[in-house]
Amino acid sequence: MKANKLIAAVVTFVAAGAVFAQEYVQPDAGFVSTKSRAEVRAELAQARQDGTLQFADSAYPVFEVELSKSREEVKAELAQAREAGTLSVADHEYPAVQLSSSSKTGEQMGIEMATAFASSRTISQRN
User: Fold this and answer.
1) pTM, whole model, 2 decimals?
2) What residues contact residue 104 under an 8 Å CB cut-off, 6+ apart?
3) CA end-to-end span of the chain, whole Å?
4) pLDDT averaged over the chain?
5) Closest residue by Cα to residue 121 from 110, 111, 113, 106
6) What is the pLDDT of residues 43-72, one digit of tens each?
7) Which has the closest alpha carbon to 54: 70, 43, 67?
8) Residue 30 or 122, more confident
9) Contacts of 44 (CB under 8 A, 6+ apart)
10) Which of 2, 38, 95, 114 is 20–30 Å from 30 (CA)?
């Protein structure tokens, strides 16, 4: 019995391996370059020098930016906007909520939560 299970397992693993096996093909198979490596490097250096090098979408060039405000000025504006409640947030962010102090203790809140939970279970059992 154990031998049959072992043979079945081996056959299963061999068959699964065959499903995933495929012939390897080099990505540049069939490509024949008309330029030498030195020519390509010279063209690259020239494109970098004259600013005509094309960038991929994921590799944006770095631009020098002249800042009009110091870091301290920006931090001061941020603090002022937070205090005034005028800080605009992105759609995916929730605005900061200031919690008011509660007169209830943690124990009282726990009792309220347990009561609400019990009553909601009773209502759902009736339906």
Assistant:
1) 0.26
2) 112
3) 53
4) 77
5) 113
6) 989 988 888 877 666 666 667 778 888 899
7) 43
8) 30
9) 53
10) 38
Residue 100 is classified by DSSP as P
**Cβ 114 vs Cβ 106: under 8 Å:** no
Question: What are the DSSP calls for 53-86, one per residue?
Answer: ----TTSPPP-----SS-HHHHHHHHHHHHHHT-
CA dihedral 42, 45, 46, 49 (to 10 degrees): -160
Q: Which residues contact 35 (CB under 8 A, 6 or more apart)?
A: 43
More confident of the two residues 100 and 49:
49
If you count them, how many residues does the chain have? 127
Amino acid at site 101: S
Instruction: Name the token pair of 109.
Output: 């809140």
DSSP state of 27: T
